[in-house]
Structures are given as C-alpha cells and as structure tokens.
Write a structure and sequence with these properties.
By secondary structure, the chain is mostly beta strands. 11% of the residues lie in helices and 56% in strands. Helix 1 packs across helix 2.
Length: 576
Amino acid sequence: MIAAALKWTGDSSARCRCSLARAGRRRLPMIFPGPGDRAMRAGPHSKQSRKVQAMNRKVSVCAGMMAAVVAFSASAEETAGGPSSSAASGAASVDWPGVARELSAPPLVAAAEQPVVHTLAAGAPTGSPSASGAVSPVAPSNDASSMPVVPDGAHAPSAGVPEAKAEADANEVHIPFSLTLVPGLSTSGFHTGNVVNNVSIGLVATHAKRVDGLAMSLAGNWVGEGGLSGAQLAVGANLAQGPVTGAQFSVGANVAGADLLGLQSTVGVNVVRGNAEGAQLAVGGNIAPGEVNGTQVAVAVNVAGKGLLGAQLGVGANVSGGPVRGLQAAVGANIATERVHGLQAAAGLNVAGQMTGLQMSSGVSYVRSLSGAQLSIINVGGEVDGAQVGIVNIANNVAGAQVGILNVARELDGEAVGILSFVGGGQAHVQVWASDVALTNVGVKLGGRHIYSLFTVGYSPSIDEDRRRYVMGAGLGGHIPAGRFFFDIDAVSSTVHTKRLFDDSKHVLAQLRLTAGWQVARHFAVFGGVSANTLVTWDDSDPWKELGIGPQWRHVADEGRTTVRMWPGLLAGVQI
C-alpha cells in the first residue's frame, strides 16, 4: 500500500515538498475518522466514498494555495539563516505513519516574532552547522545571570558595533509594497518592527522599520530606527526615529529622531533631534537641537541648537544656541548666544554673543563683542570695533565711531558725533566768554577727540541805548589739538530774545567762529577768536540795529518784511 505524506521543511525558500514513502503492508491510520472509515469499508464506488474523496481534494487544494503564499512571501527576502538554515531545517522529522506531525511556523512570522542570534559553539569544527553561523531563536530571560556584566568605566569593543548592525540588518524583512489599515493590521503582518518597505500606503497610519521610497497616510507615518530614505506624506504627522534622507510633508508635525538631509514642510512644527542639512519650512516652528546647514523658514520660531550655517527667516523669532554663519532675519527677534558671521536684521530685537558683520534693527541691537557695525534705534555693545549708528549708542569700549543723538562710551578711541556725547577720552568742558552779541555767555562742550557739540546761553543787560537781550543756541564744531595749544572751528545757531529767554522770537543769529586756546593747566585753558555773524529778521520785527561792531552788510527782501545783516565779531573767555 502506498501512502502520500505532506511534509513542511521550513527552509529559506519555504517550498513545500511532497515525498512518497512506502509504509509496507501495515495499514496507515485514516486522516478522516468516523464516516471515512465507513466509506472505505463501503467500497470505493459508493456515494459516501465519493463525497469523502471530493472533500479530500478540496483540502489538498487549500493546503497547496497556503503553501504557495508562504513560499512567495519568504522569497521576497532571504532570512538570516541563509543556506545554513536550509540545512538545519532539512533535518526536520518526516511525517511517517504513526509519528505525530510537526509543523513549523512560516518564515515571516518566525522572523518577526523571535530575535535571531548567531552563535558559534566553542570547539565546534568550521564545517559544522553551529560554526557556519546557524540561526537560533533566543527566548527572553529575566535571569540576571544571563545579562552581560560590564565593569564601570569599561567600553564595549568597537568590533561589536558593526556586528550589532549586521545582526540588525540580517533580521530585516524586505516587503516592497504594503497596505495598512492601522499599524499591526497590514499586508506586512502583525509585527512590522523589522519590515523594510519601498512603498507603504495606509488608511489611518503606517509603520515600518525603514522606508526606502514613499509612505503615505491620512493620520501619520511612523518609521523606526532604520529611518527614511524617500518621502513621507501625511495630514497628521510624520515620525522617523532614525535619520531622514528625503522629505517629510504634513499638516501637523514632522519629527526626525536623528539627522535630516532634505526637507521638512508643515503647517505645524518641524523637529529634528540631530543635525539638519537642507530646509525646514513651517507656519508654526522649526526646531533642530543640533547644527543646521541650510534654511529655516517659519512664521513663529526657528531654533538651531548647536549653530547655523545658512539662514533663519521668521516672523516671530530666530534662535541659535551655537555660532551663526549667514543670515538671521525676523520681525520679532534674532538671538545667537555665540559668534555671528553675517547679518542680523529684525524689526524688534537683535542679540549676539559675538558679531562679525552687521546688526540692523528698528528696535534694539545688543552684542557683547562687535567687529562691524550696528544700525538701530538703540545700539548696545560691550567691546565695539567698528561703528554704532542710531538714536542712542551705548558701549563699554569703542574703537571706531558713534553717530547718534546720544552717545555713551567708557572709553572711545575714535569719534563720537551727536548732540550729546559722553565718552571717555573725549571732550567735556564748560566755557565762559564774552562777545559782541552778549557780554556773558556760558557753554557746554561735549564730544570725542576731534568733533564736539556746543550748547550756549547768553545774557546782556541794558546799557545806555542797548536793550536787555537773551541769546540761546547750539552748534557743532571741530577740535584740533597741538600740544598745549588747540584750535576750534564751529558753527552756532542762536535765537535772540528781548524780554524773556523762552519767548517766541523772529530773530535767528548764525555764527561761524574760529578760536585758538592755550591749556594753562590740566583742567583750565584760555581762548579767544573771531566770528562772522549773520542776523535774519522777518515779519517787520525789530531789526536789532544796535547789534554788531565794525562794518556791516545789510539786505532787505520781501518788500521790507525780511532783513539780513552781516558783521564781524570778537570773543574771548576761559575753558574748564
């Protein structure tokens, strides 16, 4: 009697082989007990026997289709065992009569559920299965004695890193195309932690160890430590625990657990836990704790944790925890804790630890050390090697220039040009002098080494035919030191009043003065000089004929309503 026995071999190609075994004349147990026994006893041509035979054929067809599906899935990616696993599985027991049938799990399920460890038996010959890298599943154990013990301060050998990577790669199952309802319910099986997809499409979400191609879903795409090499598209969020080489597009958020080489674009937030090389585009924010080599563009905030080589463009704020080479431009604020080589431009605030370049702001710019220029309404610096141009300029030490309304510096090696300049190493003097315009004048002289501003007020009592008059003015001049001597040339504009100092006046006096001085002592000097005076009077007001000495030049315009008079003058005084 000939009996056919179906045997599962479980090798790498998962082929289902059938072998014929002769069982002698001993009767084999029937596969279908009960009615089958009666059908066989009833004869091969009975009606009941024909039903049993048809049922057996259907079962055989179903078993063959299942075997073909398993073989096709296993052929997509050879498992870690290779030829050795085939040899090992070849030793499986044969389904002989009277022996219990042993069925092994399909290769895909086994590969997904059990970790694989390559072991080399001690003293085993190189030709033995254990020496040729046989694959054996290892069950998890809670026994502390089974865990490796590493002494404090000891480091694992470097050779273990590539071995671990090779072992992880060996466990991967390559399934080119995957359809997923939710993670765990997909054509890739229930366990997708070691699955590599080229195309992964999900209704709700997708999951794989690595995607070398495209992942699309409505809610989100989840890639494990293997990372992404390609693109992720989702309405919700894209998550890659490993490095990303390619692009992530979403409405919610994009997260790369390691480095990014490519593009992240979202309406929400982009996060790269490693370094980013490429571009991050977001309405919400871009966050990269590592270095950014590329561009961050956001409406809210851009963050580069360890530095930026490129550009940050934001409506809200740009923040760099490391050095910046390039551009930071924001409506709100630019903040760089370390050196900036390039440009910071903001409508609100610029902050830099060290700056080599230009800071521009319609608000405030601050830098601890500057080699370049600040152009803002308010400029604040520590060590400045360059220029500060704004309404208010404040610095510790300046080697360059300050140009503004108010200039303040502890030490200035350069020039300060402004209305009020309080700088170390510059000029801060009080002058008292007499002139042909007013008998008593007091002025304050402030500025740098060579440029100063002058504020004056004068008074002359009524003497004989001269009326009482007040003079108040301001001017800008230049200072030329020559040892203990000095020369000043300045232009001063004043108003002339007859009753009270702050009354409205229709008289403007312009003076160009040239003086020479001698520094008698460290804080005391005498000076004297000449002036060219021009008085303009309008609206038929008092022409102040008593002002002036020596020859005069007079011109009347606007039908006599405007009078212009010019004359030379003298002045002499002291400086403290």
